[in-house]
Amino acid sequence: MFERVGVIGVGFMGGSFALACKESAFCKVFGVDINPEAIRKGKELGVIDEGSTRIEDLKEFDTQLVVIATPVRTFYSIGKALREILDESCVVSDIGSVKGHLVYALEDFLGPRFVGAHPIAGTEKAGVENVLKGLYRGKKCIITPTERTDREAKKKVVQLWESFGSLVEEMDPYLHDHVFGAVSHLPHAVAFALMETIEALSQNSVDLFKYPGAGFKDFTRIAASDPVMWRDIFLENSNNLDIAIEAFINAFSRLRRLIKEKREDELTQYLRSASYKRKSLD
Amino acid sequence: MFERVGVIGVGFMGGSFALACKESAFCKVFGVDINPEAIRKGKELGVIDEGSTRIEDLKEFDTQLVVIATPVRTFYSIGKALREILDESCVVSDIGSVKGHLVYALEDFLGPRFVGAHPIAGTEKAGVENVLKGLYRGKKCIITPTERTDREAKKKVVQLWESFGSLVEEMDPYLHDHVFGAVSHLPHAVAFALMETIEALSQNSVDLFKYPGAGFKDFTRIAASDPVMWRDIFLENSNNLDIAIEAFINAFSRLRRLIKEKREDELTQYLRSASYKRKSLD
Fold first, then answer.
1. Cross-chain CB nearest to A205 (options B178, B206, B260)
2. Would you call A189 and B259 a contact, using CB atoms and an 8 Å cutoff?
3. Is there a contact between A268 and B228 if contact means CB atoms under 8 Å apart?
4. Which end of chain B has a smaller Cβ tally under 10 Å, C or N?
5. Which one-letter DSSP state was computed for residue A59?
6. Same domain for A258 and A121?
7. Which of B153, B171, B189 is where one domain is finished?
8. Which of chain A's residues have a Cβ under 8 Å away from the Cβ of B212?
9. Is residue B47 located within the same domain as residue B164?
């Protein structure tokens, strides 16, 4: 598959990916990060073999695969830089949470050797010190090839994820953003807004954060996620997210009305249907 | 404290309470439930000692404490029935998630021997078969006495919860509903609405429930909660919940605007503040 891999962005996501490359696919990994501390810690923890704060240094490492693991709004400048640096034969992929137009932008810079990927795994933790061994085992990884994508490059990227124990699934880049705008980006936006709500309601009364029941903590855990990573996801998938937000506000307003107007039977039906659906996911 | 306790409603909450009474306070417990299966299972699992589907049968058990553990909208009729059945000396309490006017209604029926309580513990599971041993250990229990509450009755109820390992805290009944309307009832309403949203968005496209990332499952876990229990909570605390919903819609609309208008700095600030607050809860 790949013997030498470059990972751009040595945080929780990039670090866990680098570790999987080393442990499951026996690759040598070169890490790039603008933060020298991330490189130092990454080497110390054995997450990367070598590293640098300069993307140009990838050139000397002779990589067969470079994976972009930075916040998605940096993909444009990184794609442009990689075009200048990499050999034609080097495959490029990413682990970003937004695909759609970003995949086509990277394809414009890098050509058919770019293969978009999005592993459906993660936590609210950030930083290379929190990397998780085996993060991708048993988890879905969505691959988003286009009609231009090089078959051989795609095959190798799929094999790499399969070597991690991931369940690979192909999806159209734009469909991906519609799906994850709803099931991932919307819940994160809701969780962030919920924290702001409790803060606002605390201004005129007791400190509500003193009473976080178990449900509240679980429910808002994802609001602890990295703000810059999520800012970029929200901005790059803003259209799909806005459609999902609109649908949520409709569903929530209906629930609010049923409660306010004490429409008991319809309310029971609403909650029963939601509860039934959630149970069926386990 | 209490040697003989009656528990009305032998579900997850009432059952876990009954078990705590038996194991931590060495009480004999009589369970009442309209569902004969709950009584049968409760006895079989050793959660209750005796039981009946008829509330009148409590009379013969000679209880010193009766605790109401049914959905909160049933509290009115149960309070009225208990007034006819119980000895004057029997203390009455509850473990409902709504206090405020409900506490005063029960006080009207039962007098100063009623002591409102709300343990901040639970799961999304329902049914006596899911009872949890030690559910209340290390958890807060909010006690909501009024100016009329009998001191001796309150003291005994507090001692009972302390024997379970709970951290007892007193709160005004109306303040309780304001606090938990925000930190508990609002997040549950949001979670139910989120399930409806994903269902609605699935109608015109792929089945979005096929792609539940880890975040989505954690985030919506509370939407699997018992629909009747939550219908009653929402209806009985509708005013506070509506205020919390209004605050949430304001906070969420601001986030939506920042994303739509790509106001990068304010968006970063919004997410950073929410993330920081959530992290500080752990």
1. B178
2. yes
3. yes
4. C
5. G
6. no
7. B171
8. 183, 281
9. yes
In chain A, the residue whose alpha carbon lies closest to the alpha carbon of B193 is A252
Q: For chain B, first and last CA: distance in Å?
A: 35
Summarize the confidence of residues B25-47 as an average pLDDT.
Answer: 96
Residue A214 confidence (pLDDT): 62
3-state SS, A196-245, equals HHHHHHHHCCCCHHHCCCHHHHHHHHHHHCCHHHHHHHHHHCHHHHHHHH
The domain that holds A266 is classified in CATH as 1.10.3660.10
Same-domain check for residues B126 and B15: yes
Q: Looking at the structure, tell me whether residues B147 and B271 fall in a common domain.
A: no
Residues of chain A contacting residue B260, judged by C-beta atoms under 8 Å apart: 238, 242
Domain coverage including residue A203:
175-280
What is the count of structural domains for chain B? 2
Q: Are residues B153 and B223 in the same domain?
A: no
Query: The whole model's pTM is what?
Result: 0.94
**ipTM of this predicted complex?**
0.94
* B266 contact residues in A (CB cutoff 8 A): none
Q: Do A238 and B260 touch (CB under 8 A)?
A: yes
In sequence order, the 6+-apart residues with CB closer than 8 A to the CB of B167 are: B138, B139, B140, B141
Q: Which residue of B has its CA nearest to A171?
A: B206
Say whether both A151 and A31 belong to one domain.
yes
pLDDT in tens, B180-234: 999 999 999 999 999 999 999 999 789 999 887 767 888 888 888 899 999 999 9
- Do B180 and B167 sit in the same domain of this protein? no
**Which of residues B124, B146, B171 is at a domain's end?**
B171
Q: Search chain A and give the residue with CA nearest B266.
A: A231
Token couple for B158: 């507090």
Query: Which is it for strands B28-32 and A50-52: parallel, antiparallel or unpaired?
Result: unpaired
Which residues of B are less than 8 Å from A186 in CB distance?
A: 194, 197
Q: How many CB atoms lie within 10 A of CB B227?
A: 22
Are residues B247 and A279, on separate chains, in Cβ contact within 8 Å?
no
**Nearest residue on chain B to A224, judged by CA atoms?**
B275
Nearest to A224 by CA among A250, A188, A253: A188
pLDDT digits (tens, 9 = 90+) for B17-28: 999 999 998 999
Residue B248 is nearest to which of A194, A211, A279, comparing CB atoms? Answer: A194
* Residue A132 belongs to domain with CATH number: 3.40.50.720
Structure tokens at B127: 């049914």
Same domain? For A188 and A119 the reply is no
